[in-house]
Amino acid sequence: MTLLSRLARLAQPSTQQTQSTYLLDTHTTALTHKVPQTIRDQYPTYKSLMTLSSGKLRPIFSESSLKFDKGDISYTVKGVYLAPSTDVQGINTCKFAGKCRDLCLKNTGNMKYNFSTRELKTLALYLYPHEFVAQLITEIRQHASVAKTNNSILMLRLNGTSDILWEDILDMKTLVEDINRDGGLLGGFYDYTKYPLSRRPNVNHEYYHLTFSFDEKKNANKDAQIYIQHGLSVAMVLDGKDIKQLNKQGVEYIDGDTDDFRFLDKNQLVVLKYKRPMIKTDDGYKTVEKNNFIQTLTTAITFIKSIA
After folding, report:
1. Distance separating alpha carbons of residues 130 and 45, to the nearest angstrom
2. What would the pLDDT profile of 114-142 be if each residue is shown by its tens digit?
3. Is the entire prediction scored with pTM above 0.85?
């Protein structure tokens, strides 16, 4: 069933569910215990983490958004950016992170200046999952309503800088269906992930599209092939000079730097150009040298041929 036909069948209005309806306790009951007691004592309430100097709640979704037209269909993308990997003591939001830690998106562009905001949001999720999800759903409803007004389908990335099992926290299917019955226009969710697909048995791919992030680990190719077999996509990071050679080879791939709309990909390799990140030191910021998370031209060509 296509995304448009799935949305079209949700035409009848329904009574709006309470926010807690969409919270799954299969994961959230263990979240709070991952945070050290000293940090828990420092933030005794949800508002102590999420209240801005203005008195308003800190938005969970980034203020920026992406919008594009695909034929006669318009999409709007909004994202959530939490603290990656082990940036917050006691919490690991990227369980399968490897050499990608140093090359993380958090170290590029303006992202490297927003540590405190990402950390506070992460603590809010882990310490107060019920309140966090309630605010998250309120914001999703608002963005979906705006998307409907603009004749655009809203797509959401909850793991902009993390790799959390959101399918164990949020009932995505019910949320999408209820929002669309109540007058919004939400297409679903999508993310990059390092998790082997076997470790994400609860994902409903109709509502949550995953792109596997190919890395330096020995099982990367095996895990990537499984994603392809399930109709999903795989992303690789290559050096710019290797991408030029890839183009000369004439092989087909998706340029992941052209857009971030991975929910449209199926059984394909997405190539991303290596962007040299910066990390903070006592002497300011320094460039991080690339490591073997960056794949070789040979690896990319071999993989493309294997899925052709």
Report:
1. 12
2. 448 999 999 999 999 989 999 999 999 99
3. no
